[in-house]
Amino acid sequence: MFDKILIANRGEIACRVIDTCRRLGVRTVAVFSEADAGARHVAMADEAVCIGPAASALSYLDISKVVAAAVETGAQGVHPGYGFLSENPEFVAALDRAGVTFIGPSAEAIRAMGLKDAAKARMEAAGVPVVPGYHGAEQDPGRLEAEAALIGYPVLIKAVAGGGGRGMRLVTRAEDFEDALESARVEALGAFGNGDVLIEKYIEHPRHIEVQVFGDGARAVHLFERDCSLQRRHQKVIEEAPAPGMTEAVREAMGSAAVRAAEAIGYKGAGTVEFIVDGAGGLRPDGFWFMEMNTRLQVEHPVSEAITGVDLVEWQLRVASGEPLPMRQEELAISGHAMEARLYAEDVPAGFLPATGRLERLRFGPGRVDTGVREGDTISPHYDPMIAKLTCWGATRDEARAALARGLAETEVAGVVTNLGFLGRLIDHAGFRSGEVETGLIARELDGLVAPCAAPDLLALAALEALGLNEARPGEGFALWTPLGWPVLLLRGADRIEGRVSALGGGAFAVAIGGAEVQARRGAQGWVLDGRPALARAEVVGGKVHVFGAEPMVFALPDPLETAGEAAGEGAVMAPMPGVVRSIHVRKGDAVTAGDRLAVMEAMKMEHVMRAPHDGVVAELGVAAGDQLEAGALIVRIEAQP
């Protein structure tokens, strides 16, 4: 076993690796950028080395700096986590030259799975089923279009060097192929430096099921499957293990295929073989196909740990230090069911835009929590805005879902907007409850999943707290035989929610809000609403009213001392968040129609297209390409024409 390792990562995965190292008595070295000097993973590690400024390219992605930090601190091994350099074969080679062990697969294994077209050809040769498609080297647009026609629409265009949904386009009609191909190539070239693509048949009722594998370089085992079908824009949201509806026959076929895939490349360490599965009519042994192999530990690995009792990071450390595989296949078994939810700082109603800000409140409900932040920390624009992963286990799927629902409902976050309410609605969706999960569920049900909550009882809790009535105060009874009453105004974005609270005496109130009247009474354990104990609570945190519970909400309060500034005016297109202007597509005086592309911003590794709100003429340009903007900065103002 190693005495000391360096963790070439940040955030929750760095903290998670440190947890196992502490248990095993392995000393840890953290690396950090200047922006992460006060981060949780830095505080947890035994040593820490600053490797550069906030930009990932100058710190976490700088191979020479990370290798130098490992050598200088005497680290015997480097754990890459996920993302950053975790699947970079040049990083592995550099560590080999420096005499430092990479805690993961060989550079050759990473290269074998790095390009999707070559990987699929290799898997096909190993007897692993692959999706019908074109994986050839010839990239002439005419050839690609002809191959798409042979495969049959709908098809997926996918970047051969891609991941995370970038460089991927769904094409349902032949006439759309040319534009989709150009768009995918441009995005792939910008993201990966490689514009080559492959073409695959699109499965119309797809499920995303992946198998956790672990190898020692000669043989491999699998630790069963995870279902990751609940996705938004190809990004996983909820993961669970085992997969709903899985049969022993399909599990055996899929697990064996995953092991063949790992052994075909002499795989060493933890990896995940991802399959696309035809969910129409139930799972079948001949209804799954290889998509790709992730040659690293996955974000969602905790659900596999929960059902097997295995610490995958411990296995990584043991095998990388020369020990054999800790268990044989026949010794591994599934116990119960586990689900994981990814909690992000993001503005769901605004289209899931990444959010920034200080975590004024951060308290988690019951369950396993993997996090890289603490209350008081700041979610910065430099890195992924994940706050935490919450994983819950149950003896059955229903019990695991109920445990996760409770864990989410009892989690409290204030200071930044999050997807917490969205996650709660998602796991309460009838389709998810029944196990009828597939990759299109979120997109199909999105309106209902993101609609603002207008439940009168929750609005009543917010109104009572806004008036400071959670605690008894003098003068809240009657005046001249008339109940005392107070108007209340809650602000949620552009929405103004007006109400009135009337005191009935004895700690009881009538709250008229949200088109209803709620009878509220203070109880020993909190508010009683219409005769039932409230399942949520409200509290002012950071100057805003937060409702904590299964439907978390946040409201601003009007400030009577604040003089409103002059509004930007109708037609103003503002920066929704801090970011960089990548391109401007109009000039002053140009005529535009509603929906026209005006500019493209990049923030938190995502591009955001700014479009014209209505027909008109460009009256003002507030920025130029390359400008760094703060949230609310004017980008373009469109003046309507009479």
UniProtKB/TrEMBL annotation:
Its cofactor is biotin. GO terms for molecular function: ATP binding; ligase activity; metal ion binding. Residues 1-447 form the Biotin carboxylation domain. It comes from the Bacteria. Residues 120-321 form the ATP-grasp domain. InterPro entries: ATP-grasp (IPR011761), BC-like_N (IPR005481), Biotin_BS (IPR001882), Biotin_carboxylase_complex (IPR050856), Biotin_carboxylation_dom (IPR011764), Biotin_COase_C (IPR005482), Biotin_lipoyl (IPR000089), CPAse_ATP-bd (IPR005479). Pfam families: Biotin_carb_C, Biotin_carb_N, Biotin_lipoyl, CPSase_L_D2. The keyword Transmembrane does not apply. This is 3-methylcrotonyl-CoA carboxylase alpha subunit. It comes from Vannielia litorea.
